[in-house]
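Good day; I would like, with your permission, to put a structural problem before you. What I wish to show you is a protein chain and, alongside it, a tokenised description of its three-dimensional fold. Thank you for your consideration; the sequence and its tokens are set out here:
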Amino acid sequence: MSINHLILRSFKKNVKSYYLYVFALMFSAALYFAFVTLQYDPAMDEASGSLRGLAAIQTASVLLIAIVTVFLIYANNLFIKRRSKEIGLFQLIGMTKNRIFMILSAENLMLYFGSLVIGIFIGFAASKLVAMILFKITGVEAVASLYFSGNAFIQTLLVFGGIYLFIMLMNYLYIKHQSILSLFQVKSKTESQVRKISILEILMGILGITLIATGYYVSARLFDGSFVSTNYLFFAMIFILASVIIGTYFLYKGSVRFIANLIRKSKGGYLNINEVMSLSSIMFRMKSNAMLLTIITTVSALAIGLLSLSYISYYSAERTAESTAPDDFAFITTENAEMFGEVLQDSGIGYSEKVIDVIQVEVDVEQIVGRDMENFQFESNKMRMAVISDHQVRETNVSDGDTTFAGFSDAMQTLLNLQDSGTLTFHGLTTTIEQEYLGLAKENVLPLYFTSGLTTAIVDESIYTQLAADLDPDIQLESSTYIGFTLDDRATVAVADELFNSMPFKDEFGNSSHYTEERIQKQNMGLLMFIVGFLGLTFLITSGCILYFKQVEEGDEEQPNYKILRKLGFTEKDLLKGILGKQLFNFGIPLIVGLVHSYFAVQSGWFFFGTELWTPMLIVMGLYAALYSIFGILSVLYYKKVIKLAL
């Protein structure tokens, strides 16, 4: 038999075992090529004036390479170990290690670059769709077209060619350093199954749960003032990250196995077939898979968390724009407002105008703030606040002894922990006025120019007059008037916004368009969400494949056990029930732990990114869990095939 014939026979024999590896390789190549094509697409040149941060796409492509490289190396190591006996047989019949390496390299060359070429073609076909998704998410008005980039093609070949050379080097070193005996023993090496769970493992498991719980507790108090006061916020974040990651590793190393052992002992050692199939595998394999599961869980939590936060910002874009422009257009000078008003009238665009007089007053808020004001560097419990009269705010009326707040953000509410009632003290230049606090409303009344990100105090007209007559000139802003325009016809929004952006004062702080601010927010956060989504999808596919490969390996090792069970009279249905329970653990535990990690991470600081938590977070988590579950289903189908072949 010639060497070429041997290569072809080996390739045909093993190609079925590599189908998911081939799929993941094609998917990775397609994703990378489509992603890189964005950098060279002429449509992106047209959108570059509107879309900011395109350099982030180049950075993300590097991270994409790292994810794909780790996956391909892991998958290659897994498959070469599966073929260890075959390599050993080649050596027994007299083949040199160099000749064996040449056979494997030739086989891998056909498989790898065949998949790569197909993946690039798929990426080319999908590149227009990818560009359309980016333009849709970011709101950029550009036309996406099907475009083949020679530069992207060469870059993809170079990157994946480099990965291939590195994989071949690892294969060469593996074959070079393995003896014939060790090659025949690779697949028979399993974790010690007879050892009892040691006290150290039990303590490690308890410590893991404790570390995770501690990390959750600290994250829940991250922005309540406990760490801001001592400037230890950065160290608190490092502690949370370290405790959760280490705790997750200890959880897999000891806790899960310990809990499974407790379940087994609670049944007195009498387990049914389902429990044998699931609990035994968890007890004897979870420990050896601890590092892999920790990495998958941590990166899954990171991907879900980042995607949730970016989607929260995108989802809350309109609300965020209100803090800069509460009305359609905001001005702080009469001259600019009149100039723009004339332009709107000349264009036949109707609008209504409101004018609010604003003063700045020092307010003692000690009695309504549930945090130590020294933590936030406010002097003597005083906050400089924008104050307006209730007569200037529609549908708002307060008595002369009461004050209400408007335009308070979730972030400030969390940091200050405002109470429902209390006494406020307004400090004029020479006098003080006490007011009863009635509560707050999230609707913004004034733009960021006047509020500086804080709130607006609404008081009775008589109180406003007293405060205005006793102003502290040192804290007053250059402008004391807010002018807001609201369009009569929503269909004129685009034209009016375009007219505003053609005005000479459009970039002056305080003059702003609600729609421009919303568009910028969606563009920035949409681009971030697109990049994080791309990377998250890549990681999801690769990590799902890795877990699937592990199940394939375990299924092949356990096939003799299934053969014995089938001879004892257990049906295929009996075994599949146990397999289903096993997959719920193998895929469910990393997914559930990752979701819980991401929830606490998002919960600790989501209010800095937007105004809505549950809807965007649940959408992200639901999609991630649904896609992740596909690999669990594929694993069950593979085990079903293994069980059928057991007899």
